[in-house]
Write a structure and sequence with these properties.
globular
């Protein structure tokens, strides 16, 4: 699935795919330097970026895995089967609230 098609189906996909591609997957100048291990404070921008990236990546894996195994999941959270092998991304209001809590760091699972 290309990033543009993924973005239409799953809004966060395009941004996350681009960030992972630009900063981590493809070799760039930042890979040429050796970084020391550092300890981050909770309020630091770098710490917030790392944690939010991990949360977004974990959620993306969760959502895509649910789609792949949709027929084996008793109560899917993100996808609805519309027939003929087609699925739509369909969040309930309670699930939207749960995702907001997850991304705001209030709960530990998607």
């Amino acid at each position: 699935m290309c990033a543009i098609a993924g973005q239409r189906v799953l809004p966060l996909f395009g941004r996350q795919y681009g960030m992972l591609s630009d900063m981590f997957v493809h070799i760039n100048k930042s890979h040429a330097s050796l970084d020391q291990i550092v300890s981050y404070e909770k309020g630091e921008a770098a710490f917030r970026f790392i944690v939010s990236s991990l949360r977004a990546t974990a959620w993306l894996i969760y959502a895509v895995t649910e789609l792949v195994f949709h027929d084996d999941i008793p109560k899917p959270r993100y996808w609805r089967n519309v027939g003929r092998g087609e699925y739509v991304y369909d969040l309930s209001e309670s699930e939207r609230g749960r995702l907001k809590q997850f991304f705001d760091g209030e709960i530990g699972e998607p």
